């Protein structure tokens, strides 16, 4: 598949043959446009409907591992951690997560990755390739409280103009987040959908990783992930990976790369610097639907 040369540096880097774009026609309350894909009743990242179809029909191998979850919930940290566990050392991937991001890059990229692959998607469970259910590929699902997700997702979008073409204010963008007119749709609905998938597929191996708990105990969660994928680590390996993957080290590693602006603070509670009391209360209200479930938000550490 040939790659046009006029799509922009990010699209070209990941061998896309279509540009990032918009078919949703969404604007914030000030009339500022934001690129999004609207496909089969869902608001999605502006990667084009065809790329979501590629992701749903991706060729899955029995030993693939999938990292899933709503955007900005720690998928990148888990993806890099998995790579280090497989290598048995604190070494970052040469290609980076985007080359394994099913709905983002060209299929030829993730099809060329050696096994065992670590694939990433923000798609709902029902949109995962059919072979994922057949093979019962291991899934690691990341989750994070919606207030910090909102802040991180807003910064993600305004720092990627080539993709989102958006420069609105947080207060105006926040209404879109509440309405689900952002990459993964409405936060609570997304998690309720995954909760239903967990209940309907109790024999599918899925590990839930909470962002807030990772911040408290990186080594413990590295060990938990290693045990889940049946890749044991020595104490020396665990220590090396924990030192390489903590947020400060991760930010330093990526500081000279284009994606450095997407790695912000790695904190729990930064939402207090952004949300008004009314905005916070609204997310508290919406989170009530997740109370008592495995996805009940944790706003404190």
Please write out the topology:
Elements: H1 9-13, E1 26-27, E2 33-34, E3 37-39, E4 42-44, H2 49-56, E5 65-69, H3 75-87, H4 107-111, E6 118-121, H5 130-135, E7 138-143, H6 146-158, H7 161-164, H8 170-179, H9 187-200, E8 206-210, H10 211-216, H11 218-228, H12 235-245, H13 247-254, H14 277-287
Parallel strand pairs: 5-6, 5-7, 7-8
Antiparallel strand pairs: 1-2, 3-4
Keyphrases for this structure?
301 residues; alpha/beta; disordered N terminus
Any overview of this molecule?
With 301 residues, the protein is of the alpha/beta class. It has helices at 9-13, 49-56, 75-87, 107-111, 130-135, 146-158, 161-164, 170-179, 187-200, 211-216, 218-228, 235-245, 247-254, 277-287; strands at residues 26-27, 33-34, 37-39, 42-44, 65-69, 118-121, 138-143, 206-210. The protein is built from 14 helices and eight strands. The strands form three sheets. It has a four-stranded parallel β-sheet with strand order 6-5-7-8. It has a two-stranded antiparallel sheet with strand order 1-2. Strands 3-4 form a two-stranded antiparallel sheet. A hairpin with a 2-residue loop joins strand 3 (37-39) and strand 4. The longest helix is centred in the middle third of the chain and has 14 residues, at 187-200. It is globular.
Order the strands across the largest sheet as they lie in space. 6-5-7-8
Global geometry: globular
Number of helical runs?
A: 14
Structural class: alpha/beta
Instruction: Please give the share of residues in helix.
Output: 40-55%
Q: What are the segments in which pLDDT stays under 50 over at least 5 consecutive residues?
A: 1-7
Strand content: 5-15%
Spatial separation of the terminal alpha carbons: 48 Å
What characterizes the major β-sheet? 4 strands, parallel
Number of strands: 8
The gyration radius over C-alpha positions equals 18 Å
């Amino acid at each position: 598949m040939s790659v046009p040369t006029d799509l922009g540096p990010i699209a070209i880097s990941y061998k896309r043959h279509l540009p990032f774009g918009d078919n949703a026609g969404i604007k914030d309350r000030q009339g500022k446009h934001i690129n999004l894909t609207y496909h089969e009743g869902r608001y999605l990242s502006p990667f084009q409907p065809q790329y979501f179809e590629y992701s749903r029909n991706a060729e899955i191998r029995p030993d693939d591992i999938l990292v899933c979850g709503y955007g900005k919930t720690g998928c990148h940290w888990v993806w890099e951690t998995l790579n280090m566990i497989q290598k048995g050392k604190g070494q970052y991937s040469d290609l980076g997560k985007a080359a394994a991001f099913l709905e983002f890059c060209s299929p030829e990229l993730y099809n060329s990755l050696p096994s065992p692959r670590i694939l990433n998607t923000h798609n709902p469970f029902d949109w995962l390739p059919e072979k994922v259910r057949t093979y019962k590929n291991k899934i690691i699902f990341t989750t994070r409280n919606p207030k910090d997700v909102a802040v991180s997702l807003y910064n993600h979008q305004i720092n990627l103009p080539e993709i989102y073409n958006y420069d609105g204010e947080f207060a105006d963008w926040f209404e879109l987040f509440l309405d689900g007119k952002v990459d993964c749709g409405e936060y609570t609905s997304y998690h309720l959908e995954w909760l239903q998938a967990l209940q309907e597929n109790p024999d599918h191996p899925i590990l839930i990783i909470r962002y807030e708990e990772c911040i408290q105990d990186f080594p413990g969660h590295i060990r938990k992930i290693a045990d889940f994928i049946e890749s044991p680590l020595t104490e020396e390996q665990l220590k090396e990976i924990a030192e390489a993957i903590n947020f400060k080290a991760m930010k330093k590693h990526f500081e000279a790369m284009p994606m450095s602006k997407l790695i912000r603070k790695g904190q729990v509670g930064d939402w207090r610097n952004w949300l008004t009391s009314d905005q916070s209360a609204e997310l508290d209200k919406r989170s009530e639907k997740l109370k008592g479930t495995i996805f009940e938000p944790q706003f404190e550490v």
